[in-house]
């Protein structure tokens, strides 16, 4: 059954409170079946099995119950196995990196409806911030945007600006870390990864990519694009120029402005993030 066969009315979680959003009969049947299958596997689901929560996993797997159940199980397993990343998602734990300008989220979606995220490696000082803090920022953003119905349906695309990548960065990416990164991309988080775009990638980055690549699915590998240092023309083939920051060949808001906006939003979301932190 496709996601189109189980529509949910309303365009985003922010626009319609949960109690006002309506589900089709087909969607409710899928949710009920997933819940029954989940309870058959375990009575302990720390984040609960609410309709809107289960719907994330169903949408991420196009309403395939078996695959959605596997994703639900993997998500909880990943959280339990990675306390250094998941145990404390309070904004305070990543504020240094956010204020340094490491991460921003574009205001507008791309032409396919995907959310677009940017990470600037040159603003990650490996002497000050560990790879776990870097990873935690990605998890925090993912947990916030996965609440959006449009994002559940249309997924996410990521731009990694690798300018400034150094040997000190590479040293923090162990095989264990590489496997955990790949797990989130492939089968441990209810977001569809529609594209991964690397720009300014140095030769030194190859050794890290070699570590991660074996853990990636063929589908994800096909969605990785290497743009090099002359990236502005090729990047605009994948993203409308009007949504990209001027630094990346676009006409949208400046990257620094986007970073400030997202940092403020993360701070405003502290209550939700604290609730996720307390769940084990």
User: What global shape is seen?
Assistant: globular
Report the β-strand fraction as a percent range: 5-15%
In CATH, the homologous superfamily of the largest domain goes by the name CRAL-TRIO lipid binding domain
Query: Helix share of residues?
Result: 40-55%
Name a few traits of the molecule.
Helicase, Ruva Protein, domain 3, 280 residues, 5 strands
Structure description:
By secondary structure, this protein is an alpha/beta fold. The protein folds into two domains: 3-81, N-terminal domain of phosphatidylinositol transfer protein sec14p (Helicase, Ruva Protein, domain 3, Orthogonal Bundle); 90-278, 3-Layer(aba) Sandwich (Phosphatidylinositol Transfer Protein Sec14p). Helices cover 47% and strands 9% of the residues. The protein is built from 14 helices and five strands. A five-stranded mixed beta sheet has the order 1-2-3-4-5. Helix 1 (25-41) packs across helix 2 (51-60) and helix 2 crosses helix 3. It is globular and about 50 Å long. 31% of the residues are buried. Residues 1-20 have low confidence and may be disordered. One of its GO terms (molecular function) is phosphatidylinositol bisphosphate binding. One of its GO terms (cellular component) is late endosome. Residues 90-256 form the CRAL-TRIO domain. This is CRAL-TRIO domain-containing protein.
């Amino acid at each position: 059954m496709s996601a189109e066969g189980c529509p949910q009315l309303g365009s985003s979680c922010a626009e319609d409170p949960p109690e006002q959003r309506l589900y089709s009969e087909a969607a409710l049947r899928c949710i009920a079946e997933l819940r029954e299958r989940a309870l058959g596997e375990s009575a302990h689901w720390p984040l609960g099995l609410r309709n809107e929560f289960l719907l994330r996993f169903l949408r991420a797997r196009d309403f395939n119950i078996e695959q959605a159940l596997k994703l639900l199980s993997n998500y909880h397993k990943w959280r339990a196995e990675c306390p250094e990343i998941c145990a404390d998602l309070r904004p305070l734990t990543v504020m240094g990196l956010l204020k340094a300008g490491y991460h921003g989220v574009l205001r507008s979606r791309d032409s396919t409806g995907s959310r677009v995220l940017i990470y600037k490696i040159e603003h990650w000082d490996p002497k000050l911030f560990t790879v776990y803090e870097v990873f935690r920022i990605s998890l925090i953003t993912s947990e916030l945007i996965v609440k959006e119905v449009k994002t559940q349906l249309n997924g996410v695309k990521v731009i990694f600006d690798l300018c400034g990548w150094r040997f000190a960065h590479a040293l923090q990416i162990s095989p264990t870390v590489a496997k955990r990164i790949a797990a989130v991309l492939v089968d441990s988080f209810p977001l569809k990864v529609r594209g991964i775009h690397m720009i300014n990638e140095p030769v030194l980055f190859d050794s890290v990519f070699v570590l991660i690549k074996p853990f990636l699915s063929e589908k994800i590998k096909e969605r990785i694009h290497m743009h090099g240092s002359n990236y502005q023309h090729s990047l605009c083939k994948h993203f409308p120029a009007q949504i990209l920051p001027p630094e990346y060949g676009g006409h949208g808001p400046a990257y620094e402005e986007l970073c400030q906006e997202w940092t403020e939003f993360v701070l405003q979301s502290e209550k939700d993030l604290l609730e996720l932190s307390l769940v084990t």
